UniProtKB/TrEMBL annotation:
Gene3D superfamilies: CHAD domain, Hypothetical Protein Pfu-838710-001. CDD domains: CYTH-like_Pase_CHAD (cd07756). Residues 1-204 form the CYTH domain. SUPFAM superfamilies: CYTH-like phosphatases (SSF55154). Signal peptide: none annotated. InterPro entries: CHAD_dom, CHAD_dom_sf, CYTH-like_dom_sf, CYTH_domain, YgiF. It holds the Pfam family CYTH. Residues 223-516 form the CHAD domain. It comes from the Bacteria. It comes from Methylocystis rosea. PANTHER family: INORGANIC TRIPHOSPHATASE (PTHR39569:SF1). This is CHAD domain-containing protein. SMART domains: CHAD, CYTH.
């Protein structure tokens, strides 16, 4: 049997408000039920089952013991999909012969290979449940879990909201989450309870350390359909965005806003690359929300870059100019203020709704348009066909913007920079479908050209920041001198790099397009 549930982490304040909102929503079908569950996870001494993605559990529910096996689990955007088999376990004893699915039973026996089974970890949870019924007939079980994860002498508190699909459409699980926690603050659970228990046993914690998350390389399969590949790419974008939202909310790490902006840009590029198969009103709406959030995050990222990468660099290189260090301090204070404003935004209702709706879009095929009768054919097209067409389209658009390169205006250079970035993202999305020896020369030359345009963008960002209505340190002559210094230095650096742009573009043109 397959189990589908939305797993979300809560703080104590949210937990106390859930039932009040549930009552007001009139979704509950029957009275809530409260019980205590003790679940013991067993494995071999070398954790052979866990390495194979299998969780073997004994659960005590009241006076009953139930044996459970979970397999083939995935967890993206809080949506957990896992195979589950349960059977009675009299006396709380494991009985592998009772597992009804012979293939899973045989795999477990093979993985164990005669080794003894022993407890690895356990959870002791106070669970309050209620069955919910949506107007479209979707039925779900709401479970509010509060308790502990234990492993030997170690323990850690856990508060989690699980919304399990009983019948109907999985999209309804996301509707329920927004109804019960409409004001923001939710976060996707990234690990199952079993995974948290193993982590506690091995490393003394129940979650992975929070750190800025870079985009990760995807290994697309040439046998995939366009839809399957799109789902995998969008999942990667979602994971990068959701993780870095938490990073910016909780950490003072300059890399967090940078990687969040990168994730949002990659998402919008993925929408563009896969537009032929995913085009829908919902995709267009999510793209607009990603653009809005990217602009909000970008304002902090620009301040961080100017303060820490540009002004500090000039101050260290030219210590005889005290205004440079003072200017860096002024912009750094502005960044602190902007970070606090952004944190309030990221914990709010609009960003939460964006993340929930994006997860719904990715995990429940939210791109389907009932009235588009040929969409199924486009979704089923081979990913290699779409990859070649998309890369060719991006290359042609980039080449068009690069015409007359040496005579481009500032605005035209900016447009070319954006096209180069989109081209690079498209290459990264599809690179696993082509031989590395063909991709690497092209990508290396593309990155060199992007560096030139990065300097141009930094110069434009700095000039806009220091020539607007609210110029920092306007009352201090030394800071005004530093501003002039910074603008002049950045413009000189950008123009110096630009002198080599034509040669770099010629090198890129001469690199054989690897997708042809």
């Amino acid at each position: 049997m397959s189990e589908i549930e939305l797993k979300l982490l809560l703080d104590k304040k949210m937990s106390s408000e859930i039932w009040t909102r549930l009552k007001a929503s009139k979704l509950a079908h029957g009275a809530p039920v409260t019980k205590t569950l003790r679940s013991i996870y067993l494995d071999t001494p070398d954790h052979a089952l866990n390495k194979a993605g299998i969780a073997l559990r004994l659960r005590r529910d009241g006076r009953r013991w139930i044996q459970g096996v979970k397999t083939r689990g995935t967890l993206h955007g809080g949506l957990s999909q896992v195979g589950e088999i349960e059977n009675p376990a009299p006396g709380g004893r494991v009985c592998l012969d009772a597992i009804s699915d012979t293939s899973i039973r045989d795999e477990i026996v093979d993985r164990i290979n005669g080794a003894p089974l022993q407890p690895v970890c356990e959870t002791v949870i106070r669970r309050r449940t209620s069955e919910l019924l949506l107007s479209d007939g979707t039925r779900a079980e709401l479970a509010l879990d509060s308790g502990e994860v234990r492993a030997g002498e170690r323990s850690a508190e856990l508060s989690e909201l699980e919304i399990e699909l009983l019948a109907g459409n999985a999209s309804g699980l996301f509707d329920i989450a927004l109804i019960l926690v409409p004001d923001g603050g939710l976060q996707f659970s990234r690990l199952s309870k079993a995974a948290r228990g193993y982590l506690l046993a091995q490393e003394g914690r129940i979650d992975s350390p929070l750190a800025p998350r870079n985009a990760q390389n995807l290994a697309l399969d040439p046998a995939q359909t366009a839809e399957q590949a799109a789902r995998d790419v969008l999942r990667e974008c979602l994971d990068q965005i959701a993780t870095n939202v938490l990073v910016v909310r909780q950490l003072d790490d300059d890399e967090g806003p940078h990687q969040l902006r990168v994730g949002l840009r990659r998402l919008r590029s993925a929408f563009s690359v896969y537009a032929a198969v995913l085009r829908s009103p919902e995709m267009k709406r999510l793209d607009a929300e990603a653009r809005w959030l990217g602009q909000e995050v970008g304002s902090l990222r620009d301040l961080d870059v100017v303060a820490n990468d540009m002004a500090r660099r000039e101050a260290e290189t030219h210590p005889d100019e005290p205004g440079l260090s003072a200017l860096a301090d002024v912009v750094a204070r502005q960044a602190i203020e902007r970070r606090e404003q952004l944190r309030k935004l990221l914990v709010g209702a609009r960003v939460q709704a964006f993340l929930i709706d994006l997860a719904r879009f990715v995990e429940t095929r939210g791109w389907l348009v009932p009235q588009d009768f040929v969409q199924t054919e486009r979704l089923a097209a081979p990913i290699t066909t779409l990859a070649r067409a998309s890369l060719n389209k991006r290359w042609k658009k980039t080449a068009k913007h690069a015409q007359g390169l040496e005579t481009l205006t500032v605005e035209q250079r900016h447009e070319l920079r954006k096209e180069l970035k989109k081209l690079r993202y498209a290459v990264e999305f599809f690179c696993s479908l082509f031989p590395a020896k063909r991709i690497d020369p092209f990508l290396k030359r593309l990155k060199k050209l992007q560096t030139v345009f990065g300097d141009l963008n930094d110069a434009a960002t700095l000039k806009a920041m220091f020539t607007g209505a609210d110029v920092p340190g306007a009352e201090a002559p030394s800071i005004q001198r530093a501003i002039g210094w910074m603008i002049g230095a950045s413009q000189a650096r950008a123009e110096l790099g630009w002198t080599g742009a034509k040669a770099l573009w010629r090198d890129l043109e001469q690199a054989r397009p690897f997708w042809k």
